[in-house]
Design a protein that fits this description.
The strands form two sheets. The chain has a seven-stranded mixed sheet with strand order 1-3-2-4-5-6-12, sandwiched between helices. A six-stranded mixed sheet has the order 8-7-9-10-11-13, sandwiched between helices. The two termini are about 30 Å apart. The chain is elongated, with a radius of gyration of 20 Å. With about 325 residues, the protein is of the alpha/beta class. It has ten helices and 13 strands. Helix 3 (about 85-95) links the parallel strand 4 (about 75) and strand 5 (about 100). Helix content is about 40%, strand content about 20%. It has helices at about 30-45, 55-70, 85-95, 125-140, 160-175, 195-205, 220-230, 250-255, 270-285, 305-315; strands spanning about 5-10, 20-25, 50-55, 75, 100, 120, 150-155, 185, 210-215, 240-245, 260-265, 295, 300-305. Helix 1 (about 30-45) packs parallel to helix 9 and helix 4 packs parallel to helix 5 (about 160-175). The longest helix is centred in the middle third of the chain and has 19 residues, at about 125-140. It binds alpha-D-galactopyranose (GLA). The site of alpha-D-galactopyranose (GLA) has 13 residues, from strand 6 and strand 10. Alpha-D-galactopyranose binds near residues 30, 78, 103, 161 and 268.
């Protein structure tokens, strides 16, 4: 059992395999679910799981040292900063920790993804494209003229998976005939709801003449921040269509009896990201079975109509 701050242990006996699972934003329901499924794997397979919250690089690197000192054999990590990739790899190597990056792929000194590090993440571009296609189809259904409509793309280009998602959404909208010069980007400084709301507010102030809005972004929180900003400016809920990604951080929003402009979300598989990464790590340590270098997961659209059933089918909700 680890004594480091922000770390908690679940699992088996003192001599069992020990695996750390570090995440960048423990307050996000997405990461809480990843941990929940990782704990399930620890229980099923009988290893010790140490969950570690590390919102910044300093905390992440210190946590890896502590984890190694406590005798762990594996680390699964969604790093708070993908540029720490080389530092994390070197720490893990020195401490003999097997390493799997989850969600956010490490970036090397050459600014390219570190494809030699085992990684499990989403098919970001494809999922982004599905967001764009959903927005285009719903806009068409509502008969909005392009001249009165604009896209509010919540961007966080510092993170490769986020950039791929928003680029995919924008490209799909343009491919569906939406004019590229009516796509406006709101760059987030922080990836939480307040950070997104700030960025969206700045963008909306610049474009007061737009009647209808389409909203996409890196994840549910990005899009929810924009939805709150639209509400703050008095844009009626029926004049905006917002589609998120994760599907886990918008359940309260979809449950609201009075619908907001949050139309739906691409539900990702927290179970694969939490349970399967843990299982892959466990088998790697125990039996020497090396996991695939690169695994990508897909998403399914949830809306007000189907979210209860889909979340149940996917094991997110009882
Ligand atoms: C990133 C995002 C999370 C979630 C994961 C999914 O880490 O910040 O909200 O979308 O990707 O892999």
């Amino acid at each position: 059992c680890s004594k480091q701050p922000g770390a908690a242990a679940t699992g088996a006996k003192a001599d069992a395999i020990k695996i750390g699972f570090l995440v960048k934003q423990p307050e996000e329901p997405w990461f809480q679910l990843e941990w929940k499924f990782a704990r399930q794997a620890a229980q099923d397979l009988g290893f010790n799981l140490v969950t570690i919250a590390a919102p910044d690089g300093e905390k992440a690197l210190a946590a890896i040292d502590n984890l190694a000192a406590s005798g762990a054999q594996g680390l699964i990590i969604c790093t708070p900063d993908t540029n720490l990739g080389p530092a994390i790899v070197s720490k893990a190597r020195n401490a003999n920790l097997k390493l799997i990056a989850v969600d956010d792929q490490f970036i090397g000194a050459d600014r390219q993804p570190m494809t030699s590090v085992h990684y499990l993440g989403i098919s970001a571009r494809k999922i982004g494209e599905s967001v764009g296609e959903t927005l285009a189809a719903e806009m068409e259904k509502r008969g909005w003229p392009a001249a009165e409509t604009a896209v509010c793309a919540m961007t966080y280009d510092e993170l490769a998976t986020a950039k791929e998602r928003t680029d995919g959404a924008i490209d799909a909208l343009v491919a569906a005939g939406f004019p590229r010069d009516r796509v406006f980007k709101a760059a987030q400084r922080q990836t939480d709801i307040p950070g997104a709301m700030d960025a969206a507010n700045t963008l909306l102030t610049r474009h007061p003449q737009v009647k209808y809005w389409l909203v996409c972004g890196n994840n549910d929180n990005a899009v929810l921040g924009a939805v709150r900003a639209l509400e703050g400016r008095g844009i009626p809920a029926e004049n905006a269509i917002a589609v998120g990604i994760n599907g886990t951080d918008c359940i309260g929003e979809l449950e609201k009896t009075k619908p907001t402009s949050f139309f739906g979300s691409m539900l990702l598989s927290a179970k694969i990201h939490g349970y399967q990464t843990s299982e892959m790590m466990y088998k790697w340590i125990k039996d020497g079975v090396e996991p695939p270098l690169d695994t990508r997961t897909t998403g399914i659209l949830i809306t007000r109509e189907n979210f209860r059933q889909v979340l149940k089918e996917q094991g997110v909700r009882d």
